[in-house]
Amino acid sequence: MIIKKSEFTISSPNVTKCPEDTKAEYAFIGRSNVGKSSLINMLCNHKGLAKTSAKPGKTLLINHFIINNEWYLVDLPGYGYAKSSKTVRNKLEQMIAQYILQRKQLVNVFVLIDIRHEQQKIDREFVDWLGESNIPFSIIFTKADKLSPAKAKSNALLWMKKLEDRWENLPPYFITSAEQKMGKDEVLDYIEQINETLV
Asked: Could you report the per-residue pLDDT of 142-164, keeping only the tens digit for each?
């Protein structure tokens, strides 16, 4: 898939304010500072599409971007940002959960994981929750340029292997780097494959 056109549509404070449209939606989520905006901009070949920030925890709304006038890329707030107040954190968690569980147009959640770190409890809990809720999802490992190719691959494999204690079928995963445009074709081809099954 080649993205020829990507543009911001709307920021919504909750699922009820999301676009009234039947097009497929692909949501991107991860811990604050996982490199989500950079990855979205790399995939869309559009540098300023998702706003990157030096301060983590800046995405506080559900952001919709229309891609090739065919499907939506949805930028969800990061989870687990420690410096947010408990009230803000709870509100965000509720907003994310309602979008993921209630949005009929949602066809896949991409969970972003920083490839440099071992499996963190917060990521694992989120992934397990998606599975228990029967939400289709895939894992995108980010920042692979920060490690050697061999180390990046072994970290990803180790992370996935740890899921086997509870998971029978492991979700698909991708190794990416926004800096090097690594993994771009694989992620976009995967979206295209899903889109083709929806026609």
From this structure: 999 999 999 999 999 999 999 99
